[in-house]
Structures are given as C-alpha cells and as structure tokens.
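Example 353.
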Amino acid sequence: MSQEPEIEFETRGPLAVVTLNRPKALNALTLGMIRALQPKLEAWADDEAIKAVAIKGAGEKSFCAGGDVRAVWQAGQEGGALTREFFYEEYRLNRTIHVFPKPYVALIDGIVMGGGIGLSVHGSHRVAGDRTLAAMPETAIGLFPDVGGSWFLPRLPGRLGIWMALTGARLKAADALYAGVATDYVPAADYGELEGALAQALTEGDDAAAAVDAVIARFAADPGPAPLAERRAEIDRLFAADGVAEILAALKADAGDWAKSQLEILESRSPTSMKVTAEQLLRGRGLDFDACMTMEYRMSQAAMAGHDFYEGIRAVLVDKDHAPKWQPASLGEVGAEMLEAYFAEPASGDLRF
Ligand code: QUE
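Predicted structure in complex with 3,5,7,3',4'-pentahydroxyflavone:
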C-alpha cells in the first residue's frame, strides 16, 4: 500500500520547498519529520544551487500544531527512547534554523503553536496569513514553552513574552506581527503566487536576501490594527514581575474584566509549569541561543521524569476531558528543589551540538 510521506521536499529552481504533510494531525511534528528535515537543511546550507528555503503546512487549517507529544506521551508510558530522542533532535533542528545562512521563509497560515513556532520563529522570514493563530500553549499540557522559547520570548517587546508563555495566548496575524512572531502578512490566497515569485526572483538576482525581501514586500498587505497594541500597557503592568506569585497577586488586585480573564486562565495551568516557565524566561534573557537550548533540553528531561506532562496530554489530547489534576496542585507546593531539578544535567547527559 502506498503511503503519503509525512514531509515533502521539492526544489523550484533555487528555492527549496518543504511541506509538512500530516494535515489530519494539524501537521504535528514527528521524530521522522525532524530526521528527514535536518539533513536536508544541512545539505541546502552548503549547496550553491539553493538560494533560499520555504516551509509550509499541507491543508488550510494548520502550519504545525506542535510536536507529536502524543507519541512522546506513549513512549513515556512504555519506557521508550522517544522521551529523549524527540527533544534532543527537535532542539538541534531549531538551532539549525537559527543559524541557517540563507533566507528561510515560513508560511505560517493557520495553527502555529509550540513546535510549529520552533520551525518558523528562528528563520529570517515568517509570513502570517488570514488564519494564523500563533501561540506557545505548553503550560496547558504540563510542559514549558520550549523549542527556543527561552531565547525568543524574553526578547519580545515589553512583557509580551512572559504573558504568552504563562497564558498560552493565541495571536492572529496582526498581533503576531505586532509581537514580532511574524515578520510580514500576506493574504493566504496569494501564498502560491508568492512561492512562484520567490523562485523566479532567486533565479534572476544574485542577492538572495534582497530578492526575498523585495518579493515579500511586493505581496505584503496590512493585516489591520493589532488589538495587542491597545492591550500592551496593561500586559506590561500586570505581568511586570518575574515571579508567578507576584503576577497572580497583580491580577487579583486589578478590578478589570481582562485581568480577571487572565487570572482564570492561569488558575487552570500546571503550577509546576508556570513556576518552571517563569524561571526559564528569567534565565533565558541572559543566555546565548545554544545555552538556551541546552537549558531547555535539561528541562524537557525533568518534565519527562515528572507527573504533569503525562496528566496534561491525557486531559487535552487523549481523554480530552480538559480537566487535568495537576500534582502539586498549588504554586506554594512547588518547592525550590523541584525547580532546581529542571535546570540540572540529566542522568542521560546534556544536549550537544
Ligand atoms: C498545548 C500544547 C499542544 C497541544 C495542545 C495544547 C502541543 C501539541 C498539540 C498537538 C495537536 C495536534 C496533534 C498533536 C499534538 O496540542 O504542543 O499530535 O495532532 O503538539 O493545549 O502545547
């Protein structure tokens, strides 16, 4: 029986095109996809015939909904190697995108969350579309905003990063552009034409970066006003603290409806995830990219040895009751030694590049 590949590669002259091809799973990223993409990027980085890379998701709903965390969850139950290998190889791929020496254009229409952010935000160009919904929702599954979240979230304007990290807020195109998660907006109906124009311009010009900038500028449109711009001062004020307890206190002290809505969201998130995430972003602010990924790999292995990731995946993706029973159930019970364990070298060793 023939089976569609989970990830497809083609070249349109000097433009290499990657298609994430698991539309029924919202193009969630599997270890197989990571293992196919990594050597392609390494080869294209050195191939003089390739001037740029574009990456997109199959179907209209999603660029990439995240990592295939259900498979990781399964491996965790059965003692499989995926709990190590998935994060190890995904974070190495994130780094390869970060250091990629040519234009890397992610067409991020639809859902772009978690691992999908990791496949896009580290590249040179992130083109949002009409259905873009960008988020780092990991505190809802007992994880933390990984795939380079410790690098890019603390570097977003003001306190947007810690707000996104703790709440998992979903940003549409205008807000994604405002936050800097996206670099441009192009109506998704024009993506096909944009891809052809990129291939054409890269064939004709000799400055790939300039050619890509010019083509995207030609297709770029105004996504309209960003609601986040109106909310920014409030976010910066309410999420000003580096500690979760202080942020919760600020939200509780505020009489407004928006603060109340954010408080309700945080009260549903894993207390361990929130504490670990706040510490992650604080540390990440002062680390270089590689040190961020090394830290995140340590954190991933601590999460795999804990409780909340398995409970989060059960509640959100397996049983879908959306009623996780976090352990510990309150912030106060997340002790300093629990937190420290997330930042210590795992017994199986550190991430190496
Ligand atoms: C929070 C998350 C994820 C999530 C839901 C959350 C996440 C993730 C997926 C996901 C979605 C569809 C799939 C799949 C995984 O959902 O990271 O395999 O088919 O990958 O609330 O962080």
